[in-house]
Amino acid sequence: MENWTEVPEFILLGLTNDHIQQHILFTVFLLLYQSCLLGNGAILVVTFVEPRLHSPMYFFLGHLSFLDICCSTVIVPKMLTGFITEQQTISFIGCLTQMHFFHFLGSSEGMLLGVMAFDRYVAICNPLRYIIIMNKWTCVTLAGAIWATGFFHALMHTVVTSQLWFCGPNLIQHFFCDIKPLLMLACSSTVLNLTLLNVVTSGIALTSFFLTLLSYLYIVTFLLFKSGSWQNRWKAFSTCACHLTVVALLYIPVIFNYILSSAAESAEREMSMTLLYSVFTPVLNPLIYTLRNQEVKSALRKILCRKAPSRGT
Fold this sequence. Notes:
Blueprint: E1 9-12, H1 19-49, H2 56-84, E2 88-91, H3 92-125, H4 130-133, H5 136-162, E3 171-172, H6 179-183, H7 191-225, H8 230-258, H9 267-291, H10 294-312
Parallel strand pairs: 1-3
Antiparallel strand pairs: 1-2
Helix pairs in contact: 1-2, 1-9, 1-10, 2-3, 2-9, 3-5, 3-7, 3-8, 5-7, 7-8, 8-9
């Protein structure tokens, strides 16, 4: 029975079966997806075009925006299709592909937030050594390590899941092919899959989470006892607050879904938590990083003002 699959496709049950709610949700999530593309796309453009933003902080911010765009694209278009079709089916290969890229991008984003927290720690607590520590080679190496670790972490789950035997039923209690709802349909043993999920995935998530909190703990302690004006301290606190908001929006639902959840937990609650970090967080990230960031806002105004005369001519 190994390496053999009787189920050729799965059916995603989605968020609701009510047709009126499906049409409403289609409009809502379409607007959210467009907002995600517009907001994160604007950050990508401005961090690439504006020379003043060619610094480690905005280098990693550009990676975060790219990850948000990709993560939403993996989930939302398929979910939108399900709202306007009677039955949302996905092939076995398509299901594994969606699962792979979701965990690839999600784990990469979690590690990236940890690196961004370390970047802020060096910038605030060791400003004189910041350029030396966070040089171009360091930033590129960290980014490459994040993408590579995320890819092989997801590949591990994809390969192990592909070896399972699915004999039916093929109804996935979710709006996309997440690993836990998929494992519930397996007819063969999932001990190895759950062990890897509990050990490797939880290890990556918790390590990144605690390193992020540790970095900000050092930052807050340093700011409370350092000499300097309260204006500069408040500016640093404001930046850290933005980053911690992003961390909370991502990590809290992830921890509840993959670490603290139980088998008896309802599918509706799990889907609600997943929506928070897979759909809403990518929309909120550009707002969180730009509303209080004068450099990004001035760079956006500069780009828009530069394009306005060219349209007039």
